[in-house]
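Input sequence (361 aa), recorded before submission:
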Amino acid sequence: MTTRTLDLANVISSDATFAGDKTFSGDITFSGDVIPSTPLSHRNLVINGAMQVSQRGTSFTTASGYGDYTLDRFTSAHTQTGKFTIAQVEDGPAGFKNSLKVTSSSAYTVGASEDFLIRHKIEGTNCIPLEQGTSNAKSVTLSFYVKSSLTGTFAVSFQNSANDRHYIATYTISSANTWERKTISLTLDTSGTWLTTTGIGLIIAFSLGVGSNLDGTAGAWAAGNKLSTSGSVDLVSTNGATWFLTGVQLELGDNATPFEHRSYGEELARCQRYHCRGRGSSNDIEDASVPSVNFPVAMRTGPSCTISDYSGNSGKMSRYAGTQTTVSSASATTDAIFLIQHNSESANRVWLLIYVADAEL
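Predicted structure, token format:
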């Protein structure tokens, strides 16, 4: 029997590449540390990067503001109402089923201080290994698949929760209506304030149109709120223009690895930390009812909760036609209790409700 010793102490951490098929015969003995410097699984800091989960629906008309969540964990941010629509569609590159599709609703001229974005916010607790804001700030790589009816230079930015530190990167779409994979590597910020709490740890913002006052210089961290570069494509300036996104991955290291596909169930559970919905029930006790629900996962913070009956009537429970007022709702991260006041209702009936719990960043 032949024993071969292979010292892998520095092989994995030095990003070694093995080309072709390698065959090892005999017994192989490994010496040294064979644990990689970056994780083999759970390496993607982006949740729902394959656009599988969309608990709120499959099509969205954007209102003015910065908190309109669409597909789970992806939000639209915009200074004008109704300049684009968003949909979850079955269109993707090889190995992907779904993508986030943006369609421009008009030929809009972007004002100097206006912005139109698709943003992904990463919770600070998940950013701890990045060591942002310190001299040990890590290198990361963003990769994603994109397709657009427009070609040219587009921008994506990285920001902290206060929007006072930014890094702008650009990518080029070469062929119209063709899926292309883009990779962007950078060293994270050694300055500024970066949360490692349950608040926003890092924002990734894809530009769909940004005014000149928000243009900055690509390739370096700087102070202020800058989102794009001069000359980048403004999707909202072309009526009917489309832009698709999927396979979004942010990972430690200077190299993009293949997209980390997670099961639908695991991706849904990650999304439910920020937004979930379900059903509850309660027995009636004279003129009041106290239904309770357990959330499927522990939420990021005590969520705001709304209820409706099975017909969608806000603040009501099924099998009851009178007025109901929510006196108390959830503050715990694991469960919710609602106190519902009734109008002259007899006891010993079962009431059903639908709840929506929201703890978004």
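Checked by second reader. The two ends are 59 Å apart (CA to CA).
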